[in-house]
TrEMBL record:
Assembly, per entry: Homodimer.
Similarity field: Belongs to the DnaJ family.
Region of interest (Disordered), ranges: 398-422
Gene: dnaJ
Coiled coil: none
Positions that bind Zn(2+) 1: 193, 196, 246, 249
CXXCXGXG motif repeats: 193-200, 210-217, 232-239, 246-253
Protein name: Chaperone protein DnaJ
Cofactor binding comment, as recorded: Binds 2 Zn(2+) ions per monomer.
UniProt main location, coarse: cytoplasm
Keyword Flavoprotein: no
Domain (J) ranges: 9-67
Species the sequence originates in: Actinomycetospora termitidis
């Protein structure tokens, strides 16, 4: 997509959100569109595929706070007529506008080589620069010494734009989240066309250099006392033309097709965490660098283990124990992620006590978590006659012991102090 298209496209409309939409609203809108129009959900539907690509392109800009700000500012500047529109027939600014343009371009001086200032940085950050601002119609490169110039935006040939980021999801079990895993990830997403290798031309043919811009992707036009460079309308800023488009991608150089990647899930990954695969996203137009692939990890709950809220590297386990084991102490068998171990329950332990087993949690390269075992008193729902008689005998033998005595004493003392104060 050319710089011109970039500014004319309404990314907010592509996602169906307001211009002041929050980051969460933008993400939800993108996910909804991507899910409904994914090539796997609607195979062979060209309209759905186009909408899927457009949504990914819009999300790649609006999900990045810096890109979004630059996009909004650039569209405001251009839509406000500060440059007389994109076409060659814009109104001449005249001498009376010189001060405004000087302020806009950060005080750039006439003559080649001067810095474009704020707007140059803005446009450079958005789509890699608009090319030289200092050239004439016969010198579109904006080089030093070009007559009538206002300085360069950073070079005669536009920098290649980066492709959009792509997002997908993967589900793993609890053990894979704790220990880490290497998984194959199969997805259908835009990637460099395998038929034309991204050139956009039918195999056996090659794109030809654009005659109008000489391959620079930019042409210059005069506006009053100034000369401005803008994307070439013939090649749409790419610098080349495709006479015989590739049958697979239609000349875009990008096509959606299934691919399999190998993803490394690090040990200790948490539910909802995003893993970034640099350069595995949508390829940039005209051979530009690819965006990134973000994989959202969903971890299935485990029937036995959990993760500590204070330290996710620590695993948790509720261990049922009997009353005699709490009173007299015992050595019990405890499951871990790696297998079974023996754990000593100290005599006189109370229900709810947590015992720490060192080194049995999440194992990372630089640290290892623990296993937190919480003792839970197992109360039988039924007793045999023999067990019932034994329980009666125990109750009789401990009738003089009141485990709630300290509570009643504290309550009585607090009540007495309140009465005395009144």
């Amino acid at each position: 997509m050319s710089n011109r298209d970039w500014l004319e496209k309404d990314f907010y409309r592509e996602l169906g959100v307001a211009k002041d939409a929050s980051a969460d609203e933008i993400k939800k809108a993108y996910r909804k569109i991507a899910r409904e129009n994914h090539p796997d959900a609607k195979p062979g539907d060209t309209k759905a595929e186009a909408k899927f690509k457009a949504a990914g392109e819009a999300y790649g800009v609006l999900s990045d706070a810096t890109k979004r700000q630059e996009y909004d500012e650039a569209r405001t500047l251009f839509s406000g007529g500060r440059f007389g529109g994109f076409g060659g027939g814009g109104r001449s600014s005249g001498g009376g506008q010189a001060g405004g343009f000087e302020d806009l371009f950060g005080g750039a001086t006439r003559g080649g080589g001067g810095g474009a200032g704020g707007l140059g940085d803005l446009l450079g950050g958005i789509f890699g620069g608009m090319g030289g601002m200092g050239g004439t119609a016969t010198d579109p490169t904006g080089g030093a010494g070009a007559p009538g110039g206002m300085g360069g935006f950073g070079g005669g040939v536009p920098r290649q734009r980066r492709g959009a980021d792509v997002e997908t999801e993967v589900r793993i079990d609890f053990g894979e989240a704790v220990n880490g895993a290497t998984l194959p990830l199969r997805l259908t997403s835009p990637m460099t066309c395998g038929t034309c290798d991204g050139s956009g031309a039918k195999p056996g043919t090659t794109p030809r250099t654009c005659v109008r811009c000489g391959g620079a992707g930019l042409v210059s036009r005069s506006q009053g006392a100034f000369a401005f460079s803008e994307p070439c309308p013939d090649c749409r800023g790419t610098g080349h033309l495709v006479d015989d488009p590739c049958p697979e991608c239609g000349g875009d150089g990008v096509s959606s097709r299934p691919r399999t990647l190998t993803i490394r899930i690090p040990a200790g990954v948490e539910d909802g965490q995003r893993i970034r695969l640099a350069g595995k996203g949508q390829p940039g137009p005209s051979g530009g660098p690819a965006g990134d692939l973000y994989v959202i990890v969903h971890v299935a709950a485990d029937a036995v283990f959990g993760r500590s809220s204070k330290n996710p590297d620590d695993l948790t386990l509720g261990l049922p124990v009997t009353y005699p084991e709490l009173v007299r102490g015992a050595t019990v068998t405890v499951p871990t992620i790696e297998g079974r171990i023996s754990l000593k329950v100290p005599a006189g332990s109370s229900a709810g006590r947590t015992l720490r087993v060192r080194g049995r949690g999440v194992k990372r390269k630089d640290r290892t978590g623990d296993l937190l075992v919480t003792l839970e008193l197992a109360v039988p729902s039924r007793l045999s006659a023999e067990a019932s008689d034994a329980l009666d005998a125990y109750a009789k033998a401990t009738a003089d012991h009141d485990p709630r005595a300290h509570l009643t004493e504290r309550a009585d003392r607090a009540h007495a102090d309140k009465e005395a104060a009144s």
